[in-house]
Design a protein that fits this description.
single chain, two-stranded antiparallel sheet, 3 helices, globular, disordered N terminus
């Protein structure tokens, strides 16, 4: 497909968000749109990587979907060291 960035070319922000949403949906076992520490720990031990980390920004004890997406945006910017909007294999 023209215009779609393949894995060999890197991961766009849209692809990154999509992968993180898939992880979040699978990890959110009770469907409350928040990840408890137990849900996050369970998901990370079953194939999670640093790309799927989330942060409890408000200190509530859970990671809401909004917090998860914000921390993902922050991670993308942190990993995208050349600022081209694509994570190359060397940046991941």
């Amino acid at each position: 497909m023209p215009g779609v960035i393949g894995v060999e070319q890197g991961m766009s922000a849209i692809d990154f968000d999509s992968a993180r949403m898939s992880f979040f949906n699978q990890a959110d076992a009770d469907g409350d749109l928040a990840l408890s520490p137990e849900e996050m720990e369970r998901a990370m031990t079953h194939g999670g990587s640093s790309l799927f980390q989330g942060s409890d920004l408000d200190g509530s004890g859970t990671i809401s979907l909004d917090e998860y997406m914000q921390s993902g945006n922050d991670l993308f910017v942190q990993f995208d060291t050349d600022g081209d909007g694509v994570l190359s294999s060397g940046e991941m």
